[in-house]
Design a protein that fits this description.
By secondary structure, the chain is mainly alpha-helical. Helix content is 40%, strand content 8%.
Length: 163
């Protein structure tokens, strides 16, 4: 069964899932944020089959989230470093971790996010960069300038019809 590609869809959520929507990809990125860079480190951490890890690393490199760098000539060995695009995924990952700890961990928190400077526990939230206002409520999606007709229709204001 062939997988549907979301890469050409106009929706930014769909396009994001095309790059990081496979669970191994997110776990590889998580481990890269934890400092892992080498194939054997990822494999040991994740318990992933080598062929699957090879495919996921290749996909993350192709997507621009990781960069493959030669660190040994004979035999050739590579490390995988986060790119700027990959590093920009960090707040998404921390927010996902906090959501999972809050809603999917009845046994309690297995990790705690802390402020590097103070050591105090933090709780990530998503805020508007311009106003600093949390995005948990009061947000509406509208079609942007690059939206196609289908997307414009999807987000067009709806007028209530009175009976």
């Amino acid at each position: 069964m062939q997988r549907t590609s979301f890469g050409q869809m106009p929706c930014p959520v769909a396009r994001s899932l095309e790059k990081v929507g496979e669970w191994w990809s997110i776990l590889i990125l998580r481990d890269a944020f934890y400092g892992l860079t080498r194939f054997d480190q990822f494999q040991s951490s994740l318990g992933i089959a080598p062929n699957m890890l090879t495919r996921r690393l290749k996909a993350l490199v192709g997507a621009g989230l990781l960069e493959r760098r030669l660190y040994q000539q004979r035999p050739p060995r590579y490390e995988y470093m986060l790119t700027a695009m990959g590093r920009d995924f960090r707040p998404v990952l921390w927010t996902l971790a906090a959501w999972g700890s809050k809603h999917l961990a009845p046994e309690g928190q297995s990790i705690i996010l802390i402020d590097s400077s103070s050591g105090a526990a933090i709780e990530p939230i998503v805020v508007d960069a311009r106003t600093g206002r949390p995005l948990s409520e009061g947000v509406r999606v509208v079609a942007g300038p690059a939206a196609d007709d289908r997307m414009r229709d999807r987000f067009a204001p709806r007028v209530a019809i009175e009976p």
